[in-house]
Amino acid sequence: MKIIMLGDSITQGWNGSQVTPYTLANTIEAKTGNTVTNAGIGGTLVNSGNNCFSSVVNNYNFKDYDMVIIMYGTNDFGAQGESLNTLKDGYQQGLDKIKSDNPNIQIRLVTPIRDYAVGSGDMTWKNAVGVSQNMINDAVVQIARNNNAEVYDWRDNPVVTSSSQLAPDKIHPTDVTYKSMGEALASWIGIRSQVVNTETDILSEIEQYKFIYFGFDPAGENSSNLWKATPALCGSNDAIDWTLIAEFPQLGNLRDGNIAKYNDYYWITGTTGLYRTKDFQTFKSFDVSFLQRDGYTDIWAPEFFTDYSDNWHLVWGAVSDSRHVYVADFDPETGEVTNSWQMVNEDHGMDPHIWKMNGKYYLSIDAYWLYEADSYMGPYTLIKNNIEHSDENGKTIWYEAGETLVDGDTIYFYCDHITGSVPGVTDSGQMVVQTANIHDLSKWTGPQNVTSSINMRHGSFLKVESGSDATVTKVSLTHIDKPFDLGINTKHNYEQCLSAINTIYNRFGKLLGDDVGAKPDHLQLRSSGLDRNAWLYIVHVFDQLELEINKAVGVFRSNGFANIRTRQDFDYIELVRPLNLMIDTSYQTTLNNNWDQVQTTLNDLLAVLTKFHA
């Protein structure tokens, strides 16, 4: 990965008398294995003077880089001449130029460290233009959110906590402090082998397993770093033994990860983050300010769940007067969160997990207590069960973070067994799992340890063969245009169609009480581009889609369901086989016309079932 760092003299590495050998760029390069270009220039501001950020970006073509790290603000505060609005405008101008060069570049912003030269280190002290250090840091955090960028806030992860860690000018770090700062940023970025994952690597790895887990590995936690976490993805075929697929340090210290799939997107959330990805390499960050509320603390572990009308929601726990569970509405198309902080009628628990099953809603809190209700908002009724609360000596067994995975008639219940196994880290332990029949949650098998090369902790589970526990409500297929990759384009569209067809079968079955269709076969793409394998794959995809969609259309017609849009009987589709050997406009038109037919028909079928809330 190629990284460029932009900033002032602190990015440059000035230690009060010379440029330190321990520049942030040098340390990050040494620790991560990535190539890092140091483009820091001493004395620069965000939007004023020569070589300011909004100007210096014009000296670079950011297509040449995979990541940009930006760290300004010290001079904007200390010079006492640049207003907050001027700073914000400059940041946005520079970011717009970077994104116009390279829309896929990873953008990371870093807040300025504490300045003891002006205001004696008081972060709330306002300078001559009415700007405090906290105001600048808050602005940088908000700018990052507005641009779906990662942000590192030194206030949350302080290295500079006193003027003794700075040069005599009380502005620039000492060599030792520079090294500590670089190590902190390197940990945030992650090592090269962890960050650089290709789309084919991750997605093809996922397809090798029946189940996936997304959570975190606490490796490195200790008494001075209690909440160390590296987000991790694992796969399993038996739900007990798990294999690490990839780790994602680029997501920061994301704990309590939760994953759900919507069309060809994976949504990921957890304590402090909300992301969307198609390939597990590029992650788009979304605003999580909805989790903040005056008077509330210990706001932990948001999770996705869907109701029986296929609406998406988020659930989390928080403490105000006491512990409570809260719900918000979530739009998986846009990432918008609305109606936050709806209080659920439950028994004041934490680490809430909600799922639907057997026509009911179920809730786990604190990993001991299981409940059921007719509404996800409650009231919930306790399910008496045999999950042990104490050992043979009467000592309390500390479980937390209950999560479930349903496979047929078997439900797997995972939780963290907290043992304090790491000295000085009270909340340390490992994951255990037990099972029950989905029709009787009172009788569980007793816990056994999950096995993995990492210490799997609080996370979530998905069944790969079903694609997701979320239901498809709309299909949006992509046309082929030049330049294009026919194989990958067809695969992405085809995956959406399979999910939609499965949704139609499942929802129609709920509506009529019948099994209206088996799961369609899943065709594998063995290569990209257009060699013989990919050419045959494209032909067979349209063969199968015509067969499966017409099968569904026949079920609708035989049961008297009309098309809401046309008010007529559903029409069978007839797709054109893309047999051309020349990739020309005629071939392209054939494929796009087929996708238009498929998209229209699937969405019309889904619309009928949505009307009946099946």
From TrEMBL:
Pfam families reported for this sequence: Lipase_GDSL_2
Gene3D superfamilies xref list: Glycosyl hydrolase domain, family 43 (2.115.10.20), SGNH hydrolase (3.40.50.1110)
Domain SGNH hydrolase-type esterase: start-end pairs: 6-178
The organism's place on the tree of life at top rank: Bacteria
UniProt xrefs under InterPro entries: Ester_Hydrolysis_Enzymes, Glyco_hydro_beta-prop_sf, SGNH_hydro, SGNH_hydro_sf
Protein name: SGNH hydrolase-type esterase domain-containing protein
Lineage, opening ranks: Bacteria, Bacillati, Bacillota, Bacilli, Lactobacillales
